[in-house]
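#dry-run=false #mode=assembly
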Amino acid sequence: MEESTAHLLPYARRPDFKVARATELSGANRRLYRLLEMIPGLLAWLTLILLLFASVYAPFFAAYFIIAFSIYWVLKTVFLSYHVRYNWKRLKHHMELDWQQMVERFKYDHFYHLLVFPFYKEPQEVLEDALEGLIKAKYDCKKLIVVLAAEARAGTAAADLARAMEKKYAHHFGHFLVTIHPADIPGEIAGKGSNTHYALHQVREHIIDAHHIPYSHVIASVFDIDTVIYKDYLNCLMWHFLTAEEPYKSAFQPVPLFTNNLWEAPALSRVMAMSSTFWQMIMQERPDRAATFSSHSVSFQALYEIGYGQANVVSEDSRIFWNLFVANNGHFQIVPIAYPIAMDATVAPTFFGTVKNIYRQHRRWTYGTENWCYLVYHFIKNKTIPLRQRITLAAMQGEGYWSLVTNPIILFILGWAPIVLGTREFHETVLSYELPIIVRNLMIVAMVGLVVSSIISLSLTPPRPPHHSRFTYVVMALQWIMVPITMIAFSAIPGLDAQTRLMLGKYMGFWVTPKRIK
Amino acid sequence: MPSEPQIKLLPYKKRQQFFGLLLVIFVVALPTLIFYTTGHRLNLSDPLSKIITTGGMYVTTNDLNVDVYLDEKQFERPRLFRSAYYIQNIETGQHRVVVQREGLYTWVKELPIDPYMVVEAAAFNMPLIPHIRPIAEYETATGTGVFLAKSTSTVLFPKATTTTAFLISAATANSSYVENEEYPFVQSLFSTSTATSTSVFSPIGTDRPRFRFSTTTATALERTLDFVEKNNMRLEEQGNELVAIWQGSSNSVPFYFCVTHTLSPIVTERYGTHVAAQVEEQRLSTTTPLLSDNDRVCRSQIKIDRKRKDIYFYDFFPGSVDLVLIQLEDGLYVTEIDDRAWQNTQLIYPGSEFKVVINNQSIFIAEAGTYFELLTEIEDN
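#status=ok
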């Protein structure tokens, strides 16, 4: 898709602006990018192997490290729980407010909400729920531009479904567009990113430009197809857009609640879904460390200035933020709106299928490490961004990916390594015997975080459907004891898997998480 | 209705302050916990010595319901170690540990505690009254064992108790009973053995009938010696003594072979005269030298206490290489190889006219025409 680059921000005109992997570059840049791709995996493996070696050859050092790490973990739990609890209070408060009334004091009827729903082979009810959610919203639907972005590779069934939805729902909205993303466009990888990229091009051409709507008057929200908005969401988003210091230099991030099918999902899936929600709640209170995730919003103007993000990456939801960040020379931020949107928890017809899907989904999410390579590469190239900001962000993001992979393994597996692998001299010491006791006690203290999680998750759970037993509430409260297992099985291991693939240059493709609602 | 939300984004300053507070906690907690886990303790009672260094004791037990005392103070079982007691905060010096339970022999040991170090011990507690499982030749249709005797009032197992139901039948006709499949098997164990009540220390070369079991391994070169081996541990007859010999590497030698001091007076004080004597003896020996392993020296062999009696049978206690089963003149004993302070020896079946066979972790005894399995653990109520 050839297009002019005149509208792009200067930095976004670089040929390597939308680099996705080292193989797309050449010469020194290629070597640099390849090195960056290897660093996260190398660091993770090096950490784990070094600790293993230390347990064998320097068990005393390893034991001191594990004590330090356990204390760090307890304090980290307290720190993160503090953020979750604070955001929970803010979220509850925001949900009680009448955003429609609050936004009334502004003039905003010239704004349009562009809502892009890329989908693949999801069933009709998933699409209907998403569109019904928009219709039920306390917002003038005539100010909504809805795009159903189907995939040609999904076959005629997906296109037919999109057309059927258009026929059924288009009259509710100001504008409705169905786009069919052609398969196998050179330079793209199949997935949500390329589909969205295509849809944004199409909606500009066929609706925004056709109706002479200024780009600055369009707030674009790219939603996963299972996203169901709360009634006041668009008002809340509008209010935040209108009150933001720099709305055109901001991305607006809601809190994803994976609650659409929470009552149908198995406990394992619920824990993973809520854990993801909690992580986003933490990020809501630390916007300086955050990037966009899943469903989010940004002005169309900002998107247009960077050419709508990338069609060649897996973790496109976060990459769009880094595209905007580096193109705006660091002058772009996250505005956390502390308001929920409802999405699906990962499920499958069988438990094993659910486990497999959760693993794959989290491997895709943790493949977000590719964004670290991207941002560090451009931090090296774009010297307009303040040096301190570049170093801080690269370190913070790097630490995030490193700790995601290593921390659970260190804590729950390698923490015992000196006791198992240590020398005879170590085994005869008080330290060797006290180590498991002190680690166990610290982990018990860290359980406070799980109690907080349990309470907050129950408060965010949708009302119990009549056919579900009240006993499920008890299960929902106790399900958090699975966290040590889920952290390893669905965070650390898929993360290590993803980082190892990137390290070895075995690039991942996009995997569509199956959506299923009974 | 407010024009804006009342709860704002968590202020950066507040986050930083909270982070700072946690950082301070980390900086304070880390050295404190390292200080603690290495064995240091605050001593508030002694103004002269505010900080004391402690050691620990790790005692494994073969029974989960024993009581453990250190210097007459009882200790609770830590939840982390299921079949062992880890006793913390022990001041340096000699300490007596007692492991006991009603109905079981009491195990006692006196061990030295060094700062920062944990001393290990493996306690064992055998039933005071032998507990057996009779093996009858016949069974009823419901599986109850049936012994044929002249009178139903015959006492078949006068020295033992059992919780296994059995019948004594005076009937000579046994057609109403079925044969117990286990009986011929156990009988065959004894018929293939040459167990006897002759001392194993009878002069070598004589036609001494000896019981030996299938695990016995003897090489051609060692034909004149009798021994049994298990996991690098060998029980061997040397002259009129039975010794346990470690045959593995020096870094895997069991803890009780080793001493951390080599000066005789100190070894005597910590482990007893007999240990000091053995250390001295092996220091000078060319055939059984001391094993040197960094901060300790280890004997390569330990003499088994036979209570100055003849041994008729010996083997490792089933499931253990630290315990030895020895049949002496007056009964069957279990003794530990660990001779620090002393060797605990417990009589598990009295008498002199019986034969012993170990098969598949079970001790079978043949006595007065009856067979039974000797049980060494008592059931919990």
